[in-house]
Amino acid sequence: MRIFGLCFDSTSPGVPHGHDLGLVALSFVIALFASYCALDMAERLRAATGRGRLLWLGMSGLTLGGGIWSMHFVAMTAFKAPLEQGYDPGATFLSGAVAVVAVTAGLAALGRRPGWARLIASGAVVGVGVVSMHYIGMGALQVPGEIVYRPGFFGISVLIALTAATVALWLSTKVTQAWRRAAAAAVMAIAICGMHYTAMAGTAIIATPVFQVEEAAVSKQLLAAIVTVCVASLLLLGLMMAFLDRRAASRVAALAEAERLRQLNTELEAARAAAEAASEAKTRFLATMSHEIRTPMNGVLGMLEAAMREKLDPKVHDQIATARTSAQNLLQILNDVLDLSKIEAGEMPIERISFSPRREIDNVLSMFEPAAVENGLAFNREIDPGLPQWLMGDPTRFRQILTNLVGNAFKFTASGSVSVSAHYSGIGGRNGTVRVMVRDTGIGMDDKARAKLFARFSQADASITRRYGGTGLGLAICRELATAMGGRIGVESKPEQGSTFWFELPAEDGIEPDWLRAQKKADVAPSGRLRILVAEDHPVNQKVLIALMEPIGHELHFVSDGVQAISAVEASTFDALLMDIHMPVMDGMAAARQIRSLPGEVSRIPIIALTANAMAGDRERCIEAGMNDYISKPVQIGDLMEALANHCGGSLAERSQARAEPKAEAPVPDASLDDLLASSHTKSAA
Asked: What pLDDT was estimated at residue 419?
């Protein structure tokens, strides 16, 4: 039976034949090498675009199709039969052309990211082409007889060809790493050789008595040599092209990546500059607004504080107390916003000095004792006897956290009690942990509210802000401060059962500060009458200091700029100098530096900055200029008295004795309030 020129016979015996194992092995090596080259170039095909893709499509088809054909031809030379053999050159090279065209068409139909339908269709095109190549090549074989094919083996060879082609195309889209490419090439080579030798197993040659080789035929050895040289050259050329293209693509990709990184760096630098400019603008804005708000707030709070000390009608006293509380709340909001700005800018300084935790706790609790009495709340405290007298840390931030927690406890507790406890855990009394807890019997909160409690601008419930006020920044700032000091903060609470806020800080043993030892050695009470020079150009701020300080018994002398302050300390003796920063003629920083450069005892006068500057770094700049301490406005009388006690205790006796000795002193340029107010009105009118 003949179909498409092929003779199928399942019964007729054929001439005995076999294969040269050496040439069989060579055919497998050729198939392996060709498969590897084809997969290598298929990778370049996927990466290429435009005309480059057409080039790599042709090279991939030529490599894989030519490799399959060359393997087939070498395998044919391995065929051994007791018959004279030859090859028709035209039919032989036609079979090779069919293989190349079929593989190229299959790769073109495959595309970059094929689906299963396209993959199967492309595999069918290549498989049919490989089958056609094989049997056209068999037709080019000239032997003294007729070549027939066993139908069963023929069907199996076709099935292997279709399956192998589909698998080969699938691998060409998946394999990228070299070792995987080699493994895939081995699978493809086995499939290609399996198809060929299965087909050869189903081939029989029925000899005829008369046979004559055509003149056009050439020996199989010559053809094998030509095919081997041509295909080897083609494969080496393909590999070299793929290698060079890969290196060129790598360089192009590296240059593109370098350009992308350069562009990204440029954009990031521009974004960083813009962010820094925005941050600087925000800092300047906050600094200006802080200064402008604190200056009038100093007058408001100072005068309210002074008024509270007078004997007033109970109704008026209550009204003034309400006004003072509202002003203090406004000041707390301002402080919270500034603290948040410092934290965001990474400029929240954490000191490491020796301080007394007992003293800080007592100071905070004493602030809230009037509130406890006024609200009818029990105010309990429990201090661990083992708590060291002195620890290393930041007393200001310690006090800030505790003040916030105690303030919240009083805010949300209408009846019952507020309790503060401090416990110390350490080995041998050294390097332990301080845990401070604030318990209340207030409104409490549920788990959902507790989860967002320490977030910025967040409170347990929206109604909290309407009922109790606040910005929702206090606890967020406390968490940032506790973390910055190496500690942590948390809360335990249940609705209507109160809350327990706590914070833990690492505790390293400290020593008694030098200033306290000096004060004890001087054995002079810092609360004695002080003669104080005040460098302040704002009339309202001067009136506030007079209202706060003169009832205590201190003697105040005023100057309105830095030049007058220098002249005053040179002309007369003072126990302390309270220095504003922003003043006409010469500011407080420059004046402090010049005073420190003066000869003699005058250069050691305690200088305390009283300024509305409260941004990050302001305190450090004041200390660097030669000042002893820093107090931000609005001035709290307690803070001012503490600073004077710290820095004037030892010098008071010496200066009092110096003033007691007869000495002709130049008059101090002390501007009266009326003069300053008149000057202020004159300037305003001008």
From this structure: 94
Using 50, 70 and 90 to split pLDDT, how confident is the model at 592? very high
491: region left, alpha or beta (phi > 0 left; psi from -120 to 50 alpha): beta
Long-range contact pairs involving 54-58 (C-beta distance under 8 Å, separation at least 24):
56/245, 57/104, 57/107, 57/108, 58/104
Three-state SS for 109?
Answer: helix
**Token couple for 203:** 């081939």
Q: Which of 671, 562, 568 is nearest to 627 (CA)?
A: 562
**CA-CA distance, 189 to 680, in Å (whole number)?**
101
Helices (H), 141-219: 151-174, 178-201
C-alpha span between 352 and 493 (Å, rounded): 33
Contact 242, 234 (CB under 8 A): no
The neighbouring-strand residues paired with 558 are 534
The C-alpha atoms of residue 332 and residue 350 are separated, in whole angstroms, by 20
The interaxial angle of helices 220-308 and 539-549, nearest 10 deg, is 60
Interhelix angle 151-174/116-140, rounded to 10 degrees, is 130
Q: What are phi and psi of 574, to 5 degrees?
A: -130, 155
Are 652 and 528 spatial neighbours (Cβ–Cβ below 8 Å)?
Answer: yes
φ, ψ (nearest 5 deg) of residue 345: -85, 0
Residue from 672, 614, 616, 656 nearest 639 by CA: 614
The C-alpha atoms of residue 610 and residue 601 are separated, in whole angstroms, by 23
What mean pLDDT is predicted for residues 355-371?
87
pLDDT tens per residue across span 164-215:
778 877 776 776 677 777 777 787 778 788 888 787 877 777 776 554 444 4
Q: Note the pLDDT tens digit of each residue in 51-74.
A: 777 777 777 778 777 777 887 877
Say what the pLDDT of residue 674 is. Answer: 42
The per-residue DSSP string of 337-353 comes to: HHHHHHHHTT------E
Distance (Å, rounded) from C-alpha 444 to C-alpha 103? 78
From the list 498, 328, 325, the residue with the least C-alpha distance to 418 is 498
Query: At 521, which helix (H) or strand (E)?
Result: helix 514-522
Report residue 80: phi and psi, to 5°: -120, 125
Question: How many angstroms separate the CA atoms of 413 and 426, rounded?
Answer: 33
Instruction: Name which of 549, 542, 409, 381 is nearest 474 in CA terms.
Output: 409
Instruction: Name the token pair of 566.
Output: 């220098």
Tokens matching residue 414: 């209408």
The mean pLDDT of 263-286, rounded to a whole number, is 83
Three-class DSSP category at 141: strand
Q: Which residues, in sequence order, are CB contacts of 108 under 8 Å at separation 6+?
A: 57
Percentage of the residues of the chain whose pLDDT score is greater than 70: 76
Determine how many CB atoms are found less than 10 A away from the CB of residue 102: 24
DSSP β-bridge partners for residue 504: 435, 488
CB neighbour list of residue 673: distance below 8 Å, 6 or more residues apart: 539, 542, 543, 546, 558
Structural element, H or E, at residue 490: strand 488-493
Beta bridge partners, 556, equal: 532
- Band of residue 616 on the pLDDT scale cut at 50, 70, 90: low
> Which of 178, 233, 237 is CA-nearest to residue 43?
178
d(CA 167, CA 187): 9
Tell me the percentage of the chain whose pLDDT exceeds 90.
Answer: 13
Cα–Cα distance for residue pair 234/415, rounded to 1 Å: 96
Q: Give 509's strand partners.
A: 391
Compute the distance between CA of residue 573 and CA of residue 564 in angstroms, rounded to an integer: 14
**Tokens representing 187?**
């699978």
